[in-house]
Amino acid sequence: MTRRPLTIAAALIALPVLGLAIWIGISTLLTEREIAGRVASVRQIAKDYGPVAVKADAFADLPAPVQRYLRFAVPELSAPYSFVHVAERGDFRRPLMEAFEPTRASQNIAVATPALMFDATTPMMKVLWARPYDYFADGKMVMRAKIASTLTVVDERESEVLNRISLRRWLLESPLFPMALLPGGPVSWEPIDAHHARATVSAFGLEASMVAQFREDGSLESFLAEEDGDLNTPYHGSGEYSWRGDYREVQGMMIPHSFITARAAGGKTFPFWQGEVTEIAFE
């Protein structure tokens, strides 16, 4: 007499769980399709623009530390690549949180024009995960984050402020594709001193600048924004500071394989993404 009620009770419990699993499964499929579409868009933009048309005769006009860096990073002072794919792993701190969680991410970036797609997966509460992505192309950004690839918790659309932040994001990531920093690309340089120079990327009627610091060996150590960030936003955006290390040769260029990305305000930095490059390939 008790088996049937127990069976019914078990079914009543199982059906919502099954429905939830199906919902998450379909949502995950749609989210991954959305991300793949954004990556394909960046790849097509990169193909349309091609590699940077380097102006070799303008090299001598660059600040001295920038010349050292580019000779270090791009020895041939040219590279026939228009697109880069990067895979990364490390620890990520979600906005307005303190704890770091192990995270894997990928970036797909156009070299000759500011366009990029960043996506990541980071665990939450052991059984859930967050799936954020930042997309920037044609001067417009989209920023999303979904819990379990299903429940949208961040959905930021283009605005002048966010578009400029995304433009700065492309500049902040540029040590991963240093040929973009050669004369002829969208970045211009201003001298500061023997170890610093100001980089400004201009595109789509927008500008974003950061101060680069260079090591004695010629490598680029860090980028720092000259204005404080708003640490209370529900997103990190580009951050205001990045550090690079562990340079290795990749396809004839010297590319950093360790990184720290941070918010910055009041003369202090607050890391939110730190780790290593696990794969990088240029096309």
Describe the structure.
The chain is an alpha+beta fold and 283 residues long. The protein has 3 helices and 13 strands; from the N terminus they run ααββββββαβββββββ. It has helices at residues 3-49, 64-73, 160-172, and strands spanning 83-93, 100-110, 115-124, 128-137, 140-147, 151-156, 187-193, 196-203, 206-214, 220-224, 241-250, 253-265, 268-282. A 13-stranded antiparallel beta sheet has the order 6-5-4-3-2-1-13-12-11-10-9-8-7. Strand 8 and strand 9 (206-214) form a beta hairpin. The longest helix has 47 residues, at 3-49.
Comma- or semicolon-separated keywords:
single chain, 283 residues, alpha+beta, 13-stranded antiparallel β-sheet, 3 helices, globular
Task: Estimate the helix proportion, in percent.
Answer: 10-25%
Shape: globular
**Structural class assignment:** alpha+beta
The SSE order reads: HHEEEEEEHEEEEEEE
State the strand order across the main sheet: 6-5-4-3-2-1-13-12-11-10-9-8-7
Radius of gyration, CA atoms, in whole angstroms: 21 Å
Estimated share of beta-strand residues: 35-45%
Number of helices: 3
Short structural description:
With 283 residues, this protein is an alpha+beta fold.
